[in-house]
Design goal:
Elements: H1 7-14, E1 20-28, H2 36-40, H3 50-55, E2 58-68, E3 71-72, H4 78-92, E4 97-99, H5 108-115, E5 125-129, E6 144-148, E7 152-163, E8 172-180, E9 190-196, H6 202-214, E10 216-220, E11 223-226, E12 231-236, E13 238-241, E14 249-252, E15 255-259, H7 271-282
Parallel strand pairs: 2-4
Antiparallel strand pairs: 1-2, 2-3, 5-6, 7-8, 7-11, 7-12, 8-9, 10-11, 12-15, 13-14
Length: 285
Amino acid sequence: MISDSFPELVSAGESFNEDVLLDGEIIAYKDSIEPFEQLQRRLGRKQPSKNMLHKVPVRFIAYDILERNGKDLRKESLKVRRNHLEQFIHQHQLDRVMISDTIKMDTWSHLVDLHKQSRQYHAEGFMIKSIESQYREGRKRGDWWKWKVNPMTVDAVLLYANRGSGRRANLYSDYTFAVWSSDDKESRTLLPFAKAYSGLTDKEITEVDKFVKKNTKERFGPVRSVVPQLVMEIGFEDIRKSTRHKSGFAVRFPRIMRWRKDKPLDEIDSMDRLQYLLDDKQGGG
Protein backbone atom coordinates (compact mmCIF):
# COMPACT_ATOMS: atom_id res chain seq x y z
CA MET A 1 0.00 0.00 0.00
CA ILE A 2 1.19 3.52 -0.80
CA SER A 3 -1.59 5.39 1.00
CA ASP A 4 0.80 6.67 3.69
CA SER A 5 2.87 8.43 1.03
CA PHE A 6 -0.11 10.43 -0.25
CA PRO A 7 -2.29 11.52 2.69
CA GLU A 8 -3.88 14.34 0.67
CA LEU A 9 -5.29 11.79 -1.80
CA VAL A 10 -6.62 9.64 1.05
CA SER A 11 -8.45 12.71 2.37
CA ALA A 12 -9.84 13.43 -1.10
CA GLY A 13 -11.14 9.87 -1.38
CA GLU A 14 -12.76 10.02 2.04
CA SER A 15 -14.77 13.04 0.91
CA PHE A 16 -16.56 11.08 -1.84
CA ASN A 17 -20.27 10.74 -1.12
CA GLU A 18 -20.57 7.59 -3.23
CA ASP A 19 -18.62 4.38 -3.68
CA VAL A 20 -16.46 4.25 -6.81
CA LEU A 21 -13.54 2.31 -8.22
CA LEU A 22 -11.39 4.46 -10.49
CA ASP A 23 -8.57 3.61 -12.88
CA GLY A 24 -5.97 6.33 -12.91
CA GLU A 25 -2.53 7.55 -12.02
CA ILE A 26 -0.88 9.65 -9.33
CA ILE A 27 1.07 12.57 -10.77
CA ALA A 28 3.18 15.37 -9.36
CA TYR A 29 1.31 18.54 -10.25
CA LYS A 30 1.82 22.25 -9.70
CA ASP A 31 0.66 24.53 -12.50
CA SER A 32 0.94 21.56 -14.84
CA ILE A 33 2.13 17.95 -14.75
CA GLU A 34 5.63 17.70 -13.33
CA PRO A 35 8.34 15.26 -14.48
CA PHE A 36 8.14 11.72 -13.10
CA GLU A 37 11.33 12.31 -11.10
CA GLN A 38 9.39 14.73 -8.90
CA LEU A 39 6.84 12.05 -8.05
CA GLN A 40 9.68 9.69 -7.13
CA ARG A 41 10.55 12.04 -4.27
CA ARG A 42 7.23 11.12 -2.67
CA LEU A 43 7.27 7.37 -3.32
CA GLY A 44 8.23 5.24 -0.34
CA ARG A 45 7.97 8.13 2.12
CA LYS A 46 5.69 7.24 5.00
CA GLN A 47 4.27 10.35 6.60
CA PRO A 48 5.87 12.92 4.26
CA SER A 49 6.74 16.21 5.94
CA LYS A 50 4.71 19.38 5.46
CA ASN A 51 7.63 20.78 3.52
CA MET A 52 7.58 17.81 1.12
CA LEU A 53 3.81 18.06 0.71
CA HIS A 54 4.29 21.70 -0.25
CA LYS A 55 7.27 21.16 -2.56
CA VAL A 56 5.82 18.17 -4.40
CA PRO A 57 2.02 18.41 -4.48
CA VAL A 58 0.23 15.53 -6.17
CA ARG A 59 -3.06 14.83 -7.89
CA PHE A 60 -4.93 11.75 -9.03
CA ILE A 61 -5.80 11.79 -12.70
CA ALA A 62 -8.73 9.48 -13.50
CA TYR A 63 -8.74 7.61 -16.83
CA ASP A 64 -11.72 5.30 -16.34
CA ILE A 65 -14.37 4.18 -13.87
CA LEU A 66 -14.87 0.47 -13.18
CA GLU A 67 -17.57 0.49 -10.51
CA ARG A 68 -20.05 3.02 -9.16
CA ASN A 69 -22.30 2.52 -6.14
CA GLY A 70 -21.97 -1.25 -6.36
CA LYS A 71 -22.62 -1.47 -10.12
CA ASP A 72 -19.90 -3.13 -12.20
CA LEU A 73 -19.32 -0.92 -15.26
CA ARG A 74 -16.57 -2.93 -16.91
CA LYS A 75 -18.89 -4.50 -19.47
CA GLU A 76 -20.30 -1.13 -20.47
CA SER A 77 -18.86 0.72 -23.46
CA LEU A 78 -16.17 3.34 -22.97
CA LYS A 79 -18.72 5.95 -24.04
CA VAL A 80 -21.02 4.99 -21.16
CA ARG A 81 -18.18 4.71 -18.64
CA ARG A 82 -16.81 8.10 -19.67
CA ASN A 83 -20.21 9.68 -19.05
CA HIS A 84 -20.26 8.16 -15.56
CA LEU A 85 -16.73 9.40 -14.90
CA GLU A 86 -17.47 12.94 -16.09
CA GLN A 87 -20.62 13.06 -13.95
CA PHE A 88 -18.72 11.87 -10.90
CA ILE A 89 -15.86 14.36 -11.31
CA HIS A 90 -18.30 17.22 -11.98
CA GLN A 91 -20.34 16.42 -8.87
CA HIS A 92 -17.32 16.37 -6.55
CA GLN A 93 -15.14 19.19 -7.92
CA LEU A 94 -12.02 18.21 -5.99
CA ASP A 95 -8.69 19.95 -6.55
CA ARG A 96 -6.77 16.72 -5.96
CA VAL A 97 -8.78 14.60 -8.41
CA MET A 98 -8.89 15.44 -12.10
CA ILE A 99 -10.05 13.73 -15.26
CA SER A 100 -7.89 12.87 -18.25
CA ASP A 101 -8.27 14.89 -21.41
CA THR A 102 -9.85 13.36 -24.47
CA ILE A 103 -8.65 14.27 -27.93
CA LYS A 104 -11.00 14.32 -30.87
CA MET A 105 -9.24 14.27 -34.20
CA ASP A 106 -10.46 15.19 -37.64
CA THR A 107 -7.60 13.53 -39.48
CA TRP A 108 -4.84 11.02 -38.75
CA SER A 109 -2.20 13.64 -39.66
CA HIS A 110 -3.61 15.90 -36.94
CA LEU A 111 -3.11 13.14 -34.37
CA VAL A 112 0.43 12.53 -35.64
CA ASP A 113 1.26 16.21 -35.10
CA LEU A 114 -0.10 16.09 -31.54
CA HIS A 115 1.81 12.88 -30.86
CA LYS A 116 5.08 14.64 -31.67
CA GLN A 117 4.42 17.06 -28.80
CA SER A 118 4.01 14.31 -26.18
CA ARG A 119 7.30 14.95 -24.38
CA GLN A 120 6.44 18.62 -23.88
CA TYR A 121 3.67 17.39 -21.60
CA HIS A 122 5.82 14.77 -19.85
CA ALA A 123 3.83 12.04 -21.61
CA GLU A 124 5.06 8.86 -23.27
CA GLY A 125 2.50 9.10 -26.06
CA PHE A 126 -1.20 8.33 -26.47
CA MET A 127 -3.67 5.67 -25.42
CA ILE A 128 -6.02 5.18 -28.37
CA LYS A 129 -9.28 3.49 -27.37
CA SER A 130 -12.38 2.42 -29.25
CA ILE A 131 -15.39 4.36 -28.00
CA GLU A 132 -17.32 1.06 -27.85
CA SER A 133 -14.63 -0.86 -25.94
CA GLN A 134 -15.26 -2.66 -22.66
CA TYR A 135 -12.80 -2.50 -19.77
CA ARG A 136 -10.82 -5.71 -20.08
CA GLU A 137 -8.25 -7.14 -17.67
CA GLY A 138 -4.78 -8.18 -18.76
CA ARG A 139 -3.04 -7.32 -22.00
CA LYS A 140 -5.98 -7.60 -24.35
CA ARG A 141 -5.44 -6.23 -27.83
CA GLY A 142 -7.70 -4.77 -30.46
CA ASP A 143 -9.78 -2.19 -28.58
CA TRP A 144 -6.94 -0.23 -26.97
CA TRP A 145 -3.63 0.76 -28.49
CA LYS A 146 -0.71 2.35 -26.65
CA TRP A 147 1.09 4.60 -29.10
CA LYS A 148 4.37 5.53 -27.45
CA VAL A 149 6.88 8.02 -28.78
CA ASN A 150 10.08 6.54 -30.15
CA PRO A 151 12.85 6.46 -27.54
CA MET A 152 15.67 8.96 -27.58
CA THR A 153 18.90 7.23 -28.53
CA VAL A 154 22.61 7.72 -27.93
CA ASP A 155 25.59 5.66 -29.05
CA ALA A 156 27.76 5.08 -25.98
CA VAL A 157 30.63 2.89 -24.85
CA LEU A 158 30.69 0.36 -22.02
CA LEU A 159 32.88 1.73 -19.21
CA TYR A 160 31.98 -0.29 -16.09
CA ALA A 161 30.37 -3.68 -15.51
CA ASN A 162 28.82 -5.23 -12.43
CA ARG A 163 27.58 -8.74 -11.75
CA GLY A 164 23.86 -9.25 -12.16
CA SER A 165 21.41 -10.93 -9.83
CA GLY A 166 19.35 -14.10 -9.86
CA ARG A 167 20.27 -16.35 -12.77
CA ARG A 168 22.79 -13.73 -13.90
CA ALA A 169 24.63 -13.58 -10.58
CA ASN A 170 27.77 -15.09 -12.15
CA LEU A 171 27.70 -12.87 -15.22
CA TYR A 172 28.69 -9.25 -15.71
CA SER A 173 25.33 -8.06 -17.00
CA ASP A 174 24.79 -4.64 -15.35
CA TYR A 175 26.51 -1.91 -17.30
CA THR A 176 27.52 1.74 -17.07
CA PHE A 177 27.88 3.61 -20.35
CA ALA A 178 29.77 6.76 -21.24
CA VAL A 179 29.85 9.41 -23.96
CA TRP A 180 32.56 11.87 -24.93
CA SER A 181 32.72 15.08 -22.90
CA SER A 182 32.87 17.09 -26.14
CA ASP A 183 33.54 16.76 -29.86
CA ASP A 184 37.07 18.14 -29.48
CA LYS A 185 39.27 15.10 -30.08
CA GLU A 186 42.28 16.79 -28.48
CA SER A 187 40.79 17.38 -25.04
CA ARG A 188 37.72 15.17 -24.70
CA THR A 189 37.31 12.49 -22.03
CA LEU A 190 34.72 9.81 -21.38
CA LEU A 191 31.89 10.73 -19.01
CA PRO A 192 29.49 8.12 -17.57
CA PHE A 193 25.87 9.07 -18.24
CA ALA A 194 23.61 6.02 -17.80
CA LYS A 195 23.30 2.50 -16.42
CA ALA A 196 21.45 -0.17 -18.38
CA TYR A 197 20.55 -3.74 -17.47
CA SER A 198 18.30 -4.93 -20.27
CA GLY A 199 18.21 -5.27 -24.03
CA LEU A 200 20.87 -7.86 -24.82
CA THR A 201 20.17 -11.50 -25.60
CA ASP A 202 21.57 -14.25 -23.35
CA LYS A 203 24.15 -15.01 -26.02
CA GLU A 204 25.25 -11.38 -26.18
CA ILE A 205 25.43 -11.13 -22.37
CA THR A 206 27.73 -14.15 -22.31
CA GLU A 207 29.89 -12.53 -24.98
CA VAL A 208 30.11 -9.26 -23.03
CA ASP A 209 30.91 -11.20 -19.84
CA LYS A 210 33.91 -12.82 -21.53
CA PHE A 211 35.06 -9.42 -22.79
CA VAL A 212 34.80 -7.88 -19.32
CA LYS A 213 36.88 -10.63 -17.73
CA LYS A 214 39.57 -10.39 -20.41
CA ASN A 215 39.68 -6.58 -20.59
CA THR A 216 39.41 -5.45 -16.97
CA LYS A 217 41.42 -2.32 -16.14
CA GLU A 218 40.52 -1.85 -12.45
CA ARG A 219 38.35 -3.48 -9.80
CA PHE A 220 36.15 -1.65 -7.31
CA GLY A 221 34.58 -4.39 -5.21
CA PRO A 222 32.02 -6.08 -7.48
CA VAL A 223 32.52 -3.48 -10.21
CA ARG A 224 35.12 -3.64 -12.97
CA SER A 225 36.26 -0.86 -15.25
CA VAL A 226 36.99 -2.12 -18.74
CA VAL A 227 38.82 -1.09 -21.87
CA PRO A 228 36.37 1.27 -23.65
CA GLN A 229 35.62 -0.68 -26.79
CA LEU A 230 32.09 -2.11 -26.81
CA VAL A 231 29.67 0.41 -28.32
CA MET A 232 25.93 0.11 -27.73
CA GLU A 233 22.93 2.15 -28.77
CA ILE A 234 21.16 3.25 -25.57
CA GLY A 235 17.49 4.19 -25.66
CA PHE A 236 15.54 6.10 -23.01
CA GLU A 237 12.18 7.80 -22.55
CA ASP A 238 13.23 11.20 -21.22
CA ILE A 239 16.20 13.38 -20.37
CA ARG A 240 16.67 16.22 -17.92
CA LYS A 241 19.39 18.26 -16.27
CA SER A 242 20.73 16.81 -13.03
CA THR A 243 23.26 18.03 -10.49
CA ARG A 244 23.47 14.51 -9.01
CA HIS A 245 25.11 13.01 -12.08
CA LYS A 246 28.64 13.66 -13.26
CA SER A 247 27.49 14.13 -16.84
CA GLY A 248 24.96 16.76 -15.75
CA PHE A 249 22.10 14.73 -17.26
CA ALA A 250 19.68 12.09 -16.01
CA VAL A 251 17.77 9.79 -18.34
CA ARG A 252 14.60 7.78 -17.71
CA PHE A 253 14.30 4.01 -18.28
CA PRO A 254 17.60 3.50 -20.12
CA ARG A 255 18.03 0.19 -21.95
CA ILE A 256 20.21 -1.27 -24.67
CA MET A 257 18.62 -1.04 -28.10
CA ARG A 258 21.37 -2.84 -30.02
CA TRP A 259 25.06 -3.67 -30.00
CA ARG A 260 26.84 -1.36 -32.44
CA LYS A 261 29.64 -3.66 -33.56
CA ASP A 262 29.91 -1.50 -36.66
CA LYS A 263 30.86 1.63 -34.71
CA PRO A 264 34.32 2.42 -33.25
CA LEU A 265 34.96 4.33 -30.03
CA ASP A 266 35.89 7.52 -31.89
CA GLU A 267 32.41 7.74 -33.39
CA ILE A 268 30.25 7.46 -30.26
CA ASP A 269 28.13 10.44 -29.25
CA SER A 270 29.19 13.28 -27.01
CA MET A 271 27.57 15.53 -24.42
CA ASP A 272 26.50 17.70 -27.34
CA ARG A 273 24.10 14.95 -28.38
CA LEU A 274 22.56 14.85 -24.90
CA GLN A 275 22.13 18.62 -24.92
CA TYR A 276 20.54 18.44 -28.37
CA LEU A 277 18.02 15.85 -27.17
CA LEU A 278 17.14 18.03 -24.18
CA ASP A 279 16.73 21.15 -26.32
CA ASP A 280 14.70 19.24 -28.90
CA LYS A 281 12.37 17.89 -26.22
CA GLN A 282 11.78 21.30 -24.73
CA GLY A 283 11.16 22.72 -28.17
CA GLY A 284 8.63 20.05 -28.98
CA GLY A 285 10.66 18.34 -31.69
